[in-house]
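Escalated from tier 1: zinc ion holo job.
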Amino acid sequence: MSDPRIAGASVTHFGKHPERTGRDLFAEAGLEALSQSGIDPDDAEALYYGNFMGELAEHQGHQGPLMAEAIGLDVPATRVEAACASAGTAVREAVKTIRNGEAEVVVVGGAERMTNIGTAAATDALAIAADDLYEVRAGMTFPGAYALMARSYFDQYGGSHEDLAHIAVKNHEHALVNEHAQIQQEITVEDAMEAPTIADPLGLYDSCPITDGAAAAVLTTEAYAEEHDLDAPVAITGTGQGGDNLALQDRPHLAQTPAADKAAEEAYGDAGVGPDDVDFAEVHDCFTIAEVLAIESLGFYERGEGIAAARNGETTRDGDLPINLSGGLKAKGHPVGATGVAQLATVAWLLDGSHPRADAVPDSTVGVAHNAGGTVASTTVHVMEVQE
Amino acid sequence: MTESARDGEYDDWLDSIESDDGYYLECSNGHGWLPPRRVCPRCHDQELSAVDLPESGEIASHTTITVPTPQFEDDAPYVTAIADFGPVSVTGLVRDVDPDDVAIGDVVGIDVGERVTTGDRAVVFRPR
Ligand SMILES: [Zn+2]
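Tier 2 regenerated the structure:
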C-alpha cells in the first residue's frame, strides 16, 4: 500500500465571480494542477469531483463527465456530494483508489458557483444540507444551526461572542498575504462584535462569505513519482471519515462534533501519528464556532477549552499550533464543493514551503485538513506528511 | 401556495400535534425519534412504538434569525429553537414571547402554527 503523493495542486481566486461558469472555474484549477504536477494528462485514470449545489445554482446535474471534459480528460469521473465536505470526501475516494492499486494517477477537485444566484437563494441552497422536514421547515438556516451550537457551547462550557471574534480577527489576519483569498482585510475584535447579527449570537464576521471558486490536485503513487522524477515531497498518510445524525435535534450533544472525533481517530491511526505530532491544521471554520469544535475534535484541546485558543494567541500564526494559515473559510472564502481540496492544497504548500504563510511553520512535517459537511454530520480528516 | 403531496408520516405527525395527540417513536432501549423511522439509528432495534409526547419540553438552544431564506422572508426576525422533550428533541419556531426573553431551560408547549411568508404548517413552541 502506497501513500499517495501530491504531485500538483491549484486553486482559483476565491471570491465573487458570478459570471464564471462552474466548468470554467474547474478547468482553470484542474489544468493548472495537471501542469504543476509534471504528469502527462494521458496517465490520469480517474477524476473525483466535489460539488454541492450545482443543480440549484447552475441547473446542472451529472457534473462528473462535464468536469473531466473541461480539463481534457477521458476518464471515469465521479461527482461526490457531502454538503460542505464534498471535496474532502472526494479526496478520500482518490486516496483509496490509489492505495487499492486501481490507479497510479488520480485527479481530485471541486468547484462551486454560488454568487450568481444572490445571497437569499444561496442561503436557501445551503440550508438543504440540513434535514428538510424537521429543521428547514422550522426555519433553520445554515448560520442558524451553528448559532444553536454556539449558544449551547457557551451554556455548557462558557465562553463568549468576544472569544469567537478573536477567531475572525486571526483568520482575517492570516489571509492578508493569500492572493487567492476572497477577503484580504484586517479587522478588529470591535469590528466583529459590532457587525450586524445574522443568527444570534453569530454576526456577519462569524460567518464565511458566499464564494465562487475551484480547487484541484493530482495524486499519484510513490513509485510513479520516483519513476518520473516528480517533485512531490508531500504524502497523504492518513485518511478518516465520520458521520452523525443529520438533524441537530437527534444528537445527544449540541456542542460536540463526534463525526469529526471519529474521522480524526481513524486518520491519526492510519498515519500512525497523534494530535501532539501535528504542526498546524486547516479546519472547517464555516462559522467561528466551527473552528472551536474542530480543534477540540482533532484532539488539540479538551472540550470547552478550544474557545480560548485564538484569544490566547495559541492558534495565531506566531502561536504554537497555527490554525487556518490560509485565512480559513472565514477569510479565504468557501466555494462549498471546492473547500476540501483547497485545504489539501494549502497544507501541501505549507509543508513544502511554497505557501506565503509557510514562514509561520518552518521545518514542519505534519499537517492536517479537517473538512465538515452541514452541521458536521459528515467529516473527513486527512493527515499529510513531508516524506524523507 | 401550490398543492403538493403530503409527506407521509411527517404530515401525520404534524396532524397529531395539531389535535393535541402528539407522539414520538421509542425503541426498546428508550431512544426517541420522530417519524418516519423503521429502525433506531442508535441501537438498530426495529421494535419502535408510538409513545405520547410529554406536554411540555425545555429549550435546549435557541437563535433569533435575522437573515432568513426566501421561504421565511416575512417571518424574520424569528426564533428557532430545539426543545428537549425527554427521549426526543424537536426543532420549532418560538412564538408569543419577545425573542430577547427566550432562554435555555424555558418550559414550552408544542403546537402547529403557520409560517408567515408561505402559510405552510410549522412546529411552534409557546411558553407554558
Ligand atoms: Zn435504540
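The pocket of zinc ion is lined by residues B 27, 29, 31, 40, 42-43, 45 (CB under 6 Å).
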